[in-house]
Design a protein that fits this description.
Blueprint lengths: L1 E4 L5 H14 L3 E4 L11 H15 L4 E6 L14 H4 L1 H8 L6 E5 L6 H13 L2 H11 L16 E4 L2 H4 L2 H12 L5 E2 L5 H11 L5 H15 L5 E6 L5 H10 L6 E5 L5 H11 L6
Parallel strand pairs: 1-2, 1-3, 3-4, 5-6, 5-7, 7-8
Helix pairs in contact: 1-6, 5-6, 9-10, 10-11
């Protein structure tokens, strides 16, 4: 039995447990480290599609995918971005011959054990093996701590799956360094950011609540003097959501698009943060 795993789309939150569990079951874990495909989607989706295509070619029996919204459904959430609303359904439209999907929670808690038991039974049909495997990996059922952040003055807001990508963080830090600024990435756990989001702009989907929560949290931090709102290119719905949240900001802010030149926007943000320019 071979199960394909994908990096990105919140994999930092759930994949450590599930990879260890699959290995404890005696299942072969297959990864695909491939460069993004040149397709007309945002960069994270390009990377996902390249991995799925490679896993499909390698003949995996199942594909492990996260439920980004924890079972919450919304007709208007996520800016109606199909990749955020239902990752499996979006992939099925792109890959009609997609391997069977094992959908698992994108975040870890004790309730994940129930789904893990179901997945184990599907893969092995051996309840005793499933029980032993769960006992071996139960200790991994705890969320990873937030990534460390530089103590900068520019708060960075972006979709959670972007902020957990080290390459994205490095790209943002380099862009800010060119104008002598440092980033400050949100350093609260996801559930705390969602609570922050509910105070600013109540939303349906967990990823939307988290995104809006970044705006509220960073805006109230004294060390943060301005905000940079980053969206993936070719993903038009998300800027509208951020613009709604940004209307409630009083600190300087800029909305920029991943893959474009931020120089003018960052210079303007810096000037306004220093009191020398208008937004």
């Amino acid at each position: 039995m071979r199960v394909g795993l994908v990096q990105g789309f919140l994999s930092r939150r759930y994949l450590g447990f599930w990879e260890a569990y699959l290995e404890a079951l005696g299942v072969e874990v297959v990864r695909a480290n491939t460069p993004p495909s040149p397709v007309p989607f945002c960069l994270p989706v390009q990377g996902l599609l390249a991995q799925v295509e490679a896993l499909k070619e390698r003949g995996v029996d199942y594909l492990l995918l996260p439920d980004l919204q924890d079972g919450v459904e919304s007709e208007k959430g996520g800016g109606q971005c199909p990749w955020l609303l239902d990752l499996e359904a979006a992939l099925l439209r792109y890959f009609p011959g997609l391997p069977p999907v094992l959908k698992v929670p994108a975040e870890l808690s004790e309730r994940v054990l129930g789904r893990a038991g179901e997945v184990g039974q599907i893969l092995t049909q051996n309840p005793m093996l499933v029980g032993r495997a769960l006992d071996r990996v139960r200790y991994l059922l705890k969320p990873p701590p937030p990534l460390k952040t530089p103590q900068g003055s520019v708060g960075i807001v972006a979709q959670p799956y972007l902020l957990e990508d080290e390459a994205f963080r490095e790209e943002v830090a380099k862009a800010l360094a060119r104008v002598d600024l440092l980033p400050y990435f949100p350093d609260l756990p996801p559930e705390k950011l969602r609570e922050e989001g509910d105070r600013l702009l109540p939303m349906d989907l967990p990823t939307d609540r988290e995104l809006v929560g970044m705006v509220h949290y960073l805006h109230r931090l004294g060390r943060v003097k301005g905000l940079l709102l980053v969206v993936s290119y070719a993903c038009p719905p998300i800027p509208g959501l951020l613009r709604r949240a940004a209307r409630r900001l009083t600190k300087p802010h800029r909305l920029v698009t991943l893959g474009e030149d931020w120089s003018e926007a960052l210079l303007g943000l810096k000037a306004e943060m220093e009191g020398g320019g208008a937004r």
